[in-house]
Structure prediction request, 1037 residues.
Amino acid sequence: MTLQQPKPSRIDWITIMLYYFFVVVGLLCIYASIYKETNPLIWDASQNYGKQLIWIGVSSFLGLMILLIDEKFFFAFSYPIYGITILLLILVLVAGTTVKGSSSWIEIGGFRMQPAEFAKFGTALALAKFLSGYNVNFEKDRKIQILSAGIILLPMVIILLQNETGSTLVFTSFIFVLYREGLPGWILFAGFILILLSVLALLVQPIFIIIALVLLAILFLFLVRRTRALILLTFGAVIVAGLMVSSIDYAFQNVLQAHQRTRINVLLGKEVDIKGAGYNVQQSKIAIGSGGLWGKGFLQGTQNKFRFVPEQSTDFIFCTIGEEYGFAGSLLFISLYILLLYRLLVMAERQRQKFNRIYGYSLVCILFFHFVINIGMTLGLMPVIGIPLPFISYGGSALLSFTILLFIFIRLDANRVNELRGTAD
Amino acid sequence: MDNLSKQRTLLVIFISIAIIYITRLFYLQVVDESYVFFAQNNVLQEQTIYPARGLIYDRNGELLVYNDAIYDLSVITDQVKNLDTISFCNVLGISKDEFLSTFARIRRQKGFSPWKPVVFQRQITIPTYAAFQEKLYDFQGFFVEVRTDRKYKHKSAAHVMGYIGEVTEKDIEKSDGYYRMGDFVGISGVEKVYENDLGGTKGTRYVLVDSKNRTQGRYKDGEFDTAAVAGKNIHLSIDQSLQDLGERLMLNKIGSIVAIEPSTGEVLALVSSPTYDPNLLIGRDRGNRYMELLRDPDKPLFNRPISAPYPPGSIFKIIMSLMGQEEKVLTPATAYACHHGYLFVGCHSHGSPLQLRGAIAVSCNAYFCQVYRSVINNPKYKYVEDAYNQFYKHAYSFGMGHALGIDLYGEGKGVLKKAEYFDKLYGRHRWQALTTISMGIGQGELGITPLQMANATAAVANRGYYITPHIVKLISNKKNPNKDYNEKHWTTIDTSYFPVVIEGMQDVVERGTAYIARIPGIEVCGKTGTAQNPHGKDHSIFFAFAPKVNPKIAIAVVVENSGFGATWAAPIASLMMEQYITGKVDTRKALLERMLKGNLTHKNDTAAAQTK
Prediction:
C-alpha cells in the first residue's frame, strides 16, 4: 500500500472554511456564555472556553492526520472501527460514569469521553462498507435490508441502555441514507405519518383519531374507483393506524420515564410548567427573543451573562447566537448551516465509489438530525433532547467525533478523480 | 424515482426545515416584542401565594382559631449574587458560620433546586423584616414571603383542634410537588383530619425582578399565574363554654369528659386532662415546646377520651339489662336476692330481693352477675361460645370493641374479646358464665374509652341507635358530608326494652347512688361506675343523659384514681349537663366550687392557690 496523499487542490476548501467558521463561532459563543469581566482570558484552560480551544487544536491536528492517511484505510478498516466503537459502548455499560442521569461517559485520566459520539462514524463506516460490497442489492435483497438495519440498531440498543435517549435517536437519521440507497419513498412517508399520528395520539383521545381515520377512509373509497384490493388495503391501513394510535398512548403512559413525559407534554402545550421542565425552553425563548433584529452584540447578552439558560454552552448554545447576533445573525447562521449540508450533499452525490457516497450521505443525515433537533429545541419546536449542535456546542467528544466524521469524508472526496467509476450507478 | 430526485427530496426537506425555523425566529425576535421586555426585567421569580387557612368556629359561631401573619426569609440560591455577607448577617443577627451552615443545609435538602425558592430563615421578627426590607436590593436572590400561622383565642380544646407544623419529607414526596419544604400542614386533630378543607390551594404568581431585585411587573400579564384558594371555614360541634367549663372542672385531675348530642352524634365537649395551651405549639419554638410536652410525665399530649380504655365498671350494668331482655332471659319483673354479693363478687348493703329497676338504682352486683350468668349459660344455645357471641354482638352494637370513626386520629378500639379468646384461654366449650362472671359488672376482659361510654349513653338516650360521634359540624356552612355522621346505627336491642332501664337510670339520680347529680328542674338519667384499677385507687366513672325526654346531652366522665363514681365523676357530669341545658351553672355554688378546686394530683397546689 503506497501512501497516496491528495493534492491540495482536490481538497474541498469550501467545506473546511465552513467548518472553521462554525468552530470559531462556537468558541465565541462558549466564551460569551460563561464570560466574566474578572476573567477575560480566552485561553484560560481552567474555563470551558479554554478547554474548547484546546479541543479545537486537537481536532485540527486529527483532521490533518486524516487528510494525510491513505483513503483506502477507512474502507479497509471499516468493520474493525465499528467493532471498537461497539466494544467501547459495551465497556461504558459495565464501567461507565454517570453524568446527569445518563451513564454514557467513560473516564480516562482526567478526561471524560462519550463513546456514543464515536459510534456515529463507526456505524457510518460499517454501513457504507456493507452496502458497497459486491453483489449487494439493497433494493431487492431482503437479507441485506435486515442486516443493514442490524448494523444501525446494534449501537442504538446499547446507547438506549445507557439511558442516553438523545444519541439513540440520532441513529434514526440513517433512514435517509437507506432511502438514497433504495428504501422505498413510501416508508419515509409512512414514517412521517407515524410521527404525525403519534403527536395526534398524545394530543387527542385515540378513539377520536380512529373515528376520523375511518371516516377519511370511507370518503376516500367513495371518491376513487373502488377495486377489491384497494378497499382491503385502505381498511388494512386504517386498522394498523388505529392499533398504533392506541399503543402509542399506552407506551407513552407506561414506557417513557416521567421526565420524558413531562418534556413532551410541555412541548405539546398540555402542561404548563415554566419553572420545571419548561424552564429551559422558556428561558431559551426569552434569550433568543430578546435578541431582536440585530442582536445585543458580542458579550452583551444579559440572559446568558446571568446564566438564566441552563446548559447554555452545550445543548442551548444557539441561545447565545440568537441573543447576541439577533435575527440577522441567526438567519446567516442557519443559511450557512444549510449551505454546508447542501455542499456535503452535492459532494456525496458526485462520488464514484458507492462506499464514499453512502458515507457522505450518513454524514449529511447525522449533521442534519442534530441541527433539526438542537435548534428546534431552543425554539420550543422540538422536545428537549440533549444532543449537541455539531461544531458549535462545548464538549471534546462531540467536537472530535464530528471532526473525524467530516474529515474522513473530505479525505474520501479529495481522492474521487483518481478512482475508477465504481460498481453500478 | 431516480437518484437525482432523491437528492432533491432531501434538499427540499432541509430547506423546508430551515424556512420553518427562520419563520419561528422571525416571530420570536422581530414580531413578538414581549421577550425583549422579559429579558430586560431579567429574572423570572416564582412567588407562592399562601392561601389563608380556614378559620375554626365552635357550634355557636364563636371564633376559636384564626390566622396570624408571619414572615419567612426565602432565597433562590441561583440568584444570589455579589452578596455582602457581613451586612446580611448583621441584619439577620446571625454569625457567618451560621450563614454558611444554613446554606449547606439548604443545598443538602431533598429536592433542592437552585431555581426554586427555599426558606432561609423561618419567622423573622417584624423589626428584622423591616430592616431587611430596607436593604433588600443589596441582597439579590433573597425575599420575604408572608404566610400564616395559627392563633388560638381560647386555651381550651387543644386535643380537638390539634396543631399545624412543617410538612414532612414523606408528605412532600406524596404530594407530587404541591408541598415544598417549610409549608405548614395540620399535624394532629381537626387541623390534620380536615387538612384538605382547611388548607386551601396555594397560588403562584410569576413576577419579573430586575437585577436589583426590584419587582418590575407580572410575567405575560399573569397568564401563568394561579390564584390561591382560601381554606374552608369549619364549625366544630364543640360548645366552647361547655368545653371551657369541662377543662376547668378537670383541672388538677386526670381523666376525660365526653359530651354528645344524642340526636346528631355531635360531640359537644371533649376534655382530656391534663391538657396544654394550644398557643404553645405555634411560632418558632414549636419544636422545643413540643418536646417538652412529650417529655412531661403527665402526658398532656395523650388524647385520653378517645384512646384510653377503662374497665366500664357498673355502667356496664345498663348494657347487661338491655341485653338480658333482648335475649329473653330477663324481664323487668325478674328478681334476684342479694346477700352482700354473688360468689366472690361482693356487694354493699341494700334491700333484697330486687327487681330490675331497683337493681339498677342501687347498682346491685349480685343481680347483674345473675343476669350475666343467664345470658352466657342461656339454654337456648348448645355451646357457651354461641351464647357469648350474642353477648359480643350486643356490646359491639353499642360501639364497644371497635373504633367508632370519630374525625380525629388516634381513636382506640377499647377491649371486647371474642369467644375464641376464651377458647384459647380455657379450651373449647370448657368455660362458662362463672369463669368470666366479673364481666357482668363491667370488670375483667372489658375496656371502653370515654368516647365509647358517651356513645353508648347516647344510644340509650335515643332508645336504640347512635350516630357516629364527630367533631366537625359544618364545612363552609354545609353539613359535614361524611355518610357515617348522617345515619343511624341501630343497636341490636329492641326499642321496647329501653324504658324500664331508663327509669332505673333516673332512679339512680333521684334516689340511688348518684343522688349528688340531681339538677333542679331537669330529669337526669345516669349510672355511676367505679372501675377497679390494679395500679392504684379506683377510677370514678359516671355516664348520664338529660333531659329524660328528648335528651339534649349524653355525657361520660372518667376521673382517674379518685374512688367512687359518685364522688367526682357524677357531680362533674351534672354540672356540665346543667351548663349545656340551661346555659349557666349557678344553682349549686358550693358543689361547683368544690369540684373546681378539687386537686387530685397535688402537683399544682401552689398554682391552684393562685387561681383563687
Summary: Strands of chain A lie at 97-99, 102-108, 111-113. The longest helix of chain A spans residues 318-349.
